[in-house]
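Example 5.3 — Gfo/Idh/MocA family oxidoreductase
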Amino acid sequence: MRHPDEDEEDIRMAQSQAPEGAEPEKPPLRVGMVGYAFMGAAHSQGWRTAGRVFDLPLTPVLAAICGRDATAARAAADRHGWATVETDWRALVARDDIDLVDICTPGDSHAEIALAALAAGKHVLCEKPLANTVEEAEAMTRAAEAAYRSGRVAMVGFNYRRVPATALARRMVAEGRIGRLRHVRVAYLQDWLVDPQFPLTWRLRKEQAGSGSLGDLGAHIVDLAQYLAGERLAGVSALTETFVRERPLPAGAVRGLSAVSAHGTGQVTVDDAALFTGRFTSGALASFEATRYATGRKNALRIELNGERGSLAFDLERLNELSYHDGTEPGERAGFRRILVTEPDHPYLDAWWPPGHGLGYEHTFVHQARDLVHAVAEGRRPEPSFADGLQVQRVLAAVEESAEKNSVYTPIAA
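Solution (predicted structure tokens):
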């Protein structure tokens, strides 16, 4: 008579043997994620889906999710498919069964977690902006460079690079389709702070968020403008404004809150809106607007590039489309035309649906996971790297410095 253990061993052996002719199982990339709110949900979607859509060299495994609230973290794990839960990010970083640490926390913890993860020999993905200060971003970049020499990579999460239409725009600029760049104009508009009774969340406190609309939205458009242009900003001139300077305290206390009024409100210590102009290294001019007070605008990001031979424009509210004007065509038939970015030879789209079937916001995170998995497997620097995130951080710091200097207005004579 066979022992029951022998039956179980046979079952395990049968399950482990691939059918004849089947591809061998790919090595796992075991991911541990810190943070589980909005951005954690978006990253979870990316990790869960990338290997089911794209032919990846490694298989992403949702190994562990981390959050201080054990009940909430467990609920997020069950909802998004994470195998285990940690309540201390240090414990997650120390685990031998974690290959990559994904950081989806407020900015004040990015540097500490990333530095610890890189020191522990993990790959790292860190949400934008890279840090709250240039000094933190510099330390993170140094650590990332040292880790790269030891075979570990680090990437910052600027997901709008992964919209197929913006990736196509980058390709067209690199091919010279619009010629030498003259202008870039970009705006990122939201309205979720218009109500003055909206509570004082962590995003409205400098010690946690670093900055307001500038870091939250401005980081995206600075990176996207430089990515599409293929060059960096050399200088900026800026204005910022905080329209509502005190807000009601939320039901739970805000970490690190120091100034609380007798009326149960706290001080807003970040900008609500930022306006700035810039000059690229080539001499091309740029204008930027980032605000969370554009009434009626929910997540409106628009960018236009004008060159000597043509123009390109992208609108996130029409994210499967790219507008292109070929300035070399005769005037009688020239004009902006719509490119429907759903063809299999467009960026990322060979693995998705037939032409004409559009993608959405969540797919940018699937593409982000895809690109990072390839970088890990190939041992190459991912894009955008921590060095790219540091450069964006320096632009944000220059904007803040310029806005402080421009805060005193010179009256205009009547």
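Remark. The domain at 26-159 is CATH 3.40.50.720 (Rossmann fold).
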